[in-house]
Amino acid sequence: MAASLPVLTVATPWDNAEAWRTALAEAAPEFDVRLWGEAPDPARVVACAVWHPPALLFERCPNLRVVHALGAGVEHLLQRSEVRPDLPLLRLVDPVMTERLAQWALAGTLFFQRRFDRYLRQQRERRWLRHDHEDAGETTVGVLGLGVMGRAIAALLRRNGFQVIGWSRLPKELPGLGTWSGSDGLRAVASRSAILIAVLPLTGDTRSILDGDLFAAMPEGGFLINAGRGDHLVPADLMAALDTGRLDGALLDVFPVEPLPADDPLWHHPKVFVHPHAAAISNPRTGAIAIAEGIRAVLRGERPANLVDRERGY
Ligand code: NDP
Ligand code: OXD
Asked: Could you tell me the distance, in angstroms and rounded to a whole number, from the CA of residue 138 to the centre of ligand 2?
């Protein structure tokens, strides 16, 4: 019976590929779900759910009709010529993953606002010193990127009493949130933000956006939290800003090369907190439901909710 079903193939270097296969088989029983390499007849593959897929997959599957990413940021797939422009590319939007990222951003915000960074350093020196701090209502957090993730972060921070402002490509009106857009807008948000949280997609316009000019615009002693992509950041500018005291701490989840190489100076900087791209790990059980819906919509000829706009690059 399974032999007659169209094939959905899963291709990812992650060690939970089998968990994705199982979850997708449950969420999309109308497909024969196989790991790439185990699909008996590539001509029957109509859909794939992938993260860093092999080039061969696109060569060998002439009837592929939709590519679904197993994560939210798809710049690496947009750079691949095998993901032909006529193939709809979908990205993962899963409420569980969104909640995970928002909670991580809140944790990072509290970490700096309540100065856990300082107390961790003090503990290493066995120093007992208390520091007063600004309360949430006195702390402005700027969120760069007001898409699915940025809005969820902003909402959770507001529920926890923080003053929140945000920045996006196009102007926006969001209840209770001061918003800016464009390059002047970026400076305006940075200059008001004690803590800046970046959750942008990586595009030609956003590459290296977290640089010395931006840090110079921030209030003295500010903090940076980056959950977007490593290539948003100019690491040398960050370390210079931390060394001069312009910034006082950074929490980084993403890096240009992952895993972060052992000799990278970010590992050792006393004011940098390295987090191994785990702010919002995709959850196979809930992610599979969203992926199945997206693939079904494409196969029905509908425009899926999470279609990547190749022109704008996210
Ligand atoms: P969305 O596409 O929903 O939102 C992107 C936001 O970025 C939009 O508000 C968009 O503006 C804004 N933006 C894009 N380009 C610019 C620009 N040039 N100037 C200003 N704003 C810009 O994406 P998500 O919120 O779902 O995810 C964002 C990114 O977060 C992902 O691409 C990925 O890199 C990263 N991510 C990281 C995770 C982790 O675990 N570390 C997990 C999930 C995502 P506009 O609204 O005007 O279009
Ligand atoms: C993603 C990520 O883009 O995990 O989903 O960074």
From this structure: 31
